[in-house]
Amino acid sequence: MKFLLVFDFDHTIIDENSDTWIVRCAPERKLPNGLRNSYQPGQWTEYMGRVFVYLGDNGVKEDEMKRTMTTIPFTAGMIDLLGFIGENKELFDCIIVSDSNTVFIDWILKAADFHKVFDEVFTNPAAFSSTGYLTVQHFHAHHCAKCPKNLCKREVLKEFLDKQLERGVSYTQIVYIGDGGNDLCPVMFLKKNDIAMPRQGYTLEKKISQLAQSLSPVQCSVLVWSSAIDIMSYLKLLIKE
């Protein structure tokens, strides 16, 4: 009896987008229009690369970035939920699949002492260069037409499950917790016994209900949450069964 919990990060674990929060470090806490308008669909990682260059050019250092990032609030109930998962690690494997980056996620989880709750974090690799600029790379290359070119979460999940099977680990149920449009691809990969938990009022919930209306619903069960306490209540039921 083991359950796999798959978490998105931005607007799921934390109540903000880590990539837009970092703009608070910029002069006057905003980006110049030219930079802000340079984003092209599907190329968020490239856009963030330009943002980090701008911050570096303006003398924003690693410690200031870290201070800013660790002030991001967790989503309502999330601290209780992660505490509960941490106390029941023998029942739950827990991973993050996120379009944020390793530096931000690492800072935020370590500052709140939640890094031990997660077995693995799959996100865009980031590091500070010798000149002190933050650089971010694509997580992987893939052939999925539905996903941004740097990350297909379905592929990440599938590879993780395959590796776990090789180690002799299979899961009674997968619980996928997310909010965004890029969470739909992995949700569509889930089986009948699994459960998708989209955040109420966010893109993922809307996309799942559009599929249901067009009579091509997802295979898995769907349970909407607005506070992470809703997720914790479900997990408590799971382990009672």
From TrEMBL:
Protein residues bound to substrate: D19, D99
Pfam families: Put_Phosphatase
Species the sequence originates in: Dicrurus megarhynchus
Alphabetized GO MF terms: metal ion binding; phosphatase activity
Keywords: Hydrolase, Magnesium, Metal-binding
Coiled coil segments of this chain: none
Active site: D8 (nucleophile), D10 (proton donor)
Family stated for the protein in its record: Belongs to the HAD-like hydrolase superfamily. PHOSPHO family.
Cofactor(s) demanded: Mg(2+)
Keyword Hydrolase: yes
Protein name, as recorded: PHOP2 phosphatase
Binding site for Mg(2+): D8, D10, D179
